[in-house]
Amino acid sequence: MKSNHRSLRRPASFAALAFALVIWVSGPLHSQTPAPAPHGTVERVKVHGTSLEGNLEGDSPDRDVSVYLPPGYKTHKKQRYPVVYLLHGYTDNDIYWFGPKHVFVDAPAAIDKSLAADGAREMIVVMPSAYTVYMGSMYSNSVTTGDWESFIVHDLVSYIDAHYRTIPERASRGLAGHSMGGYGTIRLGMKYPEVFSSLYAMSACCLPPSAGSPNPAMAKAEAIQSAADLAKADFGTRAMIASAAAWSPNPNKPPLYFDLPTVDGKPQPLIVAKWDANAPLAMLDQYVPNLKKAHAIALDVGTKDGLMASVQELDRGMTTFGIAHTFETYEGTHISGVQTRLEQNVMPFFSKNLSFGKTKK
Asked: 42-208+283-353 domain in CATH 3.40.50.720?
């Protein structure tokens, strides 16, 4: 009987030991579910652009703006944050990045994930809607489209500094953008080094001076006579129209109020010169001192992006003039890598290069 008694007790003791080992190694069973990662919040506000008043396109000077506030913004009431101004591309708008419908980028998810992975520090991220009657502002200064340069660097920055707990200093402001927004980043970064200290241009468009070159889209653009015609046009033609509104406005030429670089297929030298004057590759040598004031500059482009050659040329130009910067290519098309780049590259870049001031709890 003793041997039977022992055989009955031994399995029970082994089971208890095994259970104890599980608890010791893993902890209590109910603690296995990790706490959810904190999420930032997004506010969408209207910002009045004095600089945009009276534009001939008839766009409202009151612009929608998405503002990402980091997870700690509501709890750390005394904390102030750096700001990254993020510019979207042509035909795009802020709601497709920060709203419920994401076309190719879920910006809040990318930012949250970067923060959760300790790849980034908490900051405010701001994106204005630059969608216009002609589907994009080019972030330029035009009586037709409006003075978008001044809207970004003065109206918008002043509003954000007045309404949010920012660190209102150049060292704590960054500028980034994709495609048309990448163009805007280079353009505004060149011209306003006193406003933004660090720049990240993603797949920047519109870099080379090529307005006088034969272009099928330019021929199609000559046939556009109204906004209704524009609505039926393809992407390339629409882009030509938006560029004309931004770079060669003509208040004496209703109803569209711009000149094209060609008439009946023949180049118009003065208009071509106006377009070329807005091309960053042509502007670069004029703004070398300003770009050298930047704390950090980064360029990137996908290897399958048709814009790769022109971004590479910008990299070479900056290198020639001794402008400190980084340049990186990645496997992807014009839009395929944007969310990953925002998470893994853009946010860490600004976390490293912007000033965060003194931390207050």
From this structure: no
